[in-house]
Request: fold
Amino acid sequence: MAFYVIEKENQLEKLEHFGDCFIDFISQNNNFHPKISPLSLIYLRPLNDHKGYIFCLDHSETFSLDKEYVINWINNNTQKLFTPDKKRALYYFNNFDKLYDINFIEDIPLDKLQTNNCIDFYYRKHHALPNVNCLIPLSKHYEDKENLFGLAKPIISQFSENDEVYKFNNNQTTRVFFEIENNGIKIDKDCFIDCYGSDLRHPEFNILKGKIYSHYNLYTTTSRPSNSYNHINFVALNKNNGERLCYRPANDMFIEYDIQGYHPRLLGEMINFNFTDKNVYEVLGELLGVSTQEAKELTFKQTYGGVWGDYQNKPFFKDIVKLTDSIWDMYQFGKYYETENRKFTYDKDMTQSKLLNYIIQSKETSTNVKILSEIVDYLKDKQTKLVLYTYDAFLFDFARSDGKETLIELQRIIKYPTNIKKGKTYHNLQKI
Reply:
């Protein structure tokens, strides 16, 4: 078939089944959150073909295909679809099981490996134009995606159906963080403008109909996702400058579950030390003969900086030493260490305490992903929504109509002891 630009339905009818493919979705502006920016083009490249195809949905140079018609055709005429960012792709293509995230095969995200001078030029000039991608020459989009496929193909060739770490991330991690992102968080517009002022240059990038949308970056060193978009760091919203006042529940109130002493509890699981439902730092304080606050400070310093000599024979800490040594031996001799959701390949600059820190963050993330997966399933038919995740805390936009039993069940799902807070804004959360 000579053509690569598909802009009419009769062209689609002439194409044969593609098999496994590389796919990428080109929205109308890359700076806008995918929840907000509609599709302009879809690039589809059969893995064993000599060229890719551009499906035109909305572009100045072509006719426009119906999106649902194209999506149905792709569903029926392809097998595995390898994509640079599955979470993003889900905003445009909801067949979860067909999508395979390339960035979980290898450590370096694909978007860090390439540039396109023509596309960069348009974005320097028109970065806030909602449909800038509809104006960039079609040939340049095609060239860009062909180059991206060239980078992706050798990575795809490393894909293994039996890779358990890959399956965990592709099947669970992408789903739960897509669901949280997709819910958005309601904001007070006037408060938002007053708080952020001139720093808020392009609110249209991720605010729509009174909700703001965040972005969980899943491709981090430890697997612990960051969450920032449009210069707002949603993981570290300031408690003192008033910005948290701008975040309001769309339902009746915010309810936050904050896991108590989470990292020591996770370490306890790794060394078979059971804190039960007691306060972690009270338990450690009693073992060490110090106050609860001193135990908290000591635990933090020795967990992340290495256990001091004076504490290497103390309960809890002596087992951390054994765990750290065991992990380090496996890392040094095997040249990697694998957790449920991350493979730490050998780095000559790695240290024992740094590796332990990475592994704790990895365990935190994989544990939370399993919790989040159960939460997402439980809330499917409820008005209450999970709107923000910050490592040891889960923020819910709670609807009273769902009943108190919903809150009880959420605590059961989270399973760890929590401090529970409620409030009418994210700033005014009060302990229940």
